[in-house]
Amino acid sequence: MDTHTTTDHLTKENEQGRRSCILCIGPAGENLVRISAVMNDKNRAYGRSGPGAVFGSKNLKAIRVIGNIKIQIKDKEQYQSGLDQALYLLKAVPATKRLFRELGTSGLIELINIINMLPHKNFQDTLHADEDVDKVSGETLAKTVLRRAGACSGCMIACQRHTQIGNKKGEGPEYETDVMMGPNCGIYNLESITRANYLCNELGMDTISFGGTIACAMELYEKGIISKEETGGTKLCFGNSDALEQMVELAAFRRGIGDKLAEGSFRLASCFKHPEFSMAIKKLEIPAYDPRASYTQALGYMTSPTGACHLRGGYAVSLAFFGGPKEIPRFSMLQSPIAIRNMQNLGILQDSLGVCRFTGFAFSTDPWSRIVSGITGLHFSTAKLEKIANRVATLERLFNLHAGVKWEDDSLPERFSREPILVAGKERLIPRDIIDKMRSDYYGVRGWDSQGKPEPGLLKDLDIKEKL
Ligand code: SF4
């Protein structure tokens, strides 16, 4: 069953008439596709690093949750003060107050293009014709395929896009999906991107990794490395939106070339002996912000514990453009390591609390300190939350070191050091010496040694008994 049928089936079986929430995988997860997602209530994706395949490998198809007990709040006054502060700040920042509700996350496309950060053709450059970008922008989405905005439970930001093409209804595309399956594949056809997005949701596939893998395959095809025989006769070239749509199903069911696409871009390109065309870090495809346009974003991708992920590595683009008083220059080598450590720690806190990353556009730790302290009746100061985040980051690093990750893996694909892009009329790339310097400064900020191993003193401070 696909994810929609599974969700409907389990919802119908909910005999007590209570609202249930469903997490499930689709055929992609069942077929152990390495870029498969776990889908939540049909269209929200836990997508990066192949969690769908993890479910599939354990024969776990779905989890249904039915709850009817309200959370008891221990200290209502403290809880309310944190909540009031959070709501005030969410209403004060344009992105959380208006932009995401009106235009969804695709409302970022025009902005990211203006700052020369929007990837094109497997990150070969960031050059797009303005009229092409308009075709896939949040503004165009709002005027064409959008039915209505929506929100996760209780959220005032309301970034969800409920869309429709013909009789087919679904959700998306979000910014990442729109760009990775669109301009990064040389495609500016919003309807086609939306249909491919619907199919990824139904079959349970990560749209970022799928878009990055198709872009890689398109470059391999155009360079004559993948042949027409390999693709079953399909012209897998940049701009071919029919091929994009066709490949979703092939990958999810591992049919034909789809069996290789299902392995993600790194294994795909390696199998054709050209791993350099995979735009991935630790074998995870890079999301839709070109790292050459921001040192801070580049360092976030390099040091994300799960591979190139803007959410785990630090959503640095938000610091450079929506940071308000926290704003830092995007080519600051001095500030990037501390900024990334702070962004990553905030992300760890948000993930540990189970709250949305987009709250970070408006505020960081303080409201959460009051809210969590109010709910639990325990004292979670901002310093204590910071220490918890440092413990998590350190434990993740220890896990990765045990799993064989080396300092060399905290790096970028060669393309970003060799092929410059134009940023504000100036050629920009990330030379190796800057990569090395930022990495080593970041290790220093984290309390790790030159090989990226947490220092004994840090482990003691964080009460971690683990030995390397
Ligand atoms: S919780 Fe996050 S993803 Fe969900 S609607 Fe709100 S801002 Fe969007």
Characterize the structure shown:
This protein has helices at about 5-10, 25-30, 50-55, 75-90, 95-105, 110-115, 130-135, 140-145, 175-180, 190-205, 205-220, 240-250, 260, 265-270, 295-305, 310-315, 315-320, 335-355, 365-375, 380-400, 415-420, 430-445, 455-460, and strands at about 20-25, 40, 45, 60-65, 145-150, 160-165, 170, 280, 285, 420-425, 425-430. The protein folds into 3 domains: about 5-65, no CATH class; about 100-285, Aldehyde Ferredoxin Oxidoreductase Protein, subunit A, domain 2, CATH 1.10.569.10; about 295-360 and about 380-460, Aldehyde Ferredoxin Oxidoreductase Protein, subunit A, domain 3 (Orthogonal Bundle), CATH 1.10.599.10. A hairpin with a 3-residue loop joins strand 2 and strand 3. It is α+β, with helices and mostly antiparallel strands. The strands form 4 sheets. It has a 4-stranded antiparallel beta sheet. Strands 5-6-7 form a 3-stranded antiparallel beta sheet. It is built from 23 helices and 11 strands. Iron/sulfur cluster binds near residues 152, 155, 160 and 358. The site of iron/sulfur cluster has 9 residues, from loops.
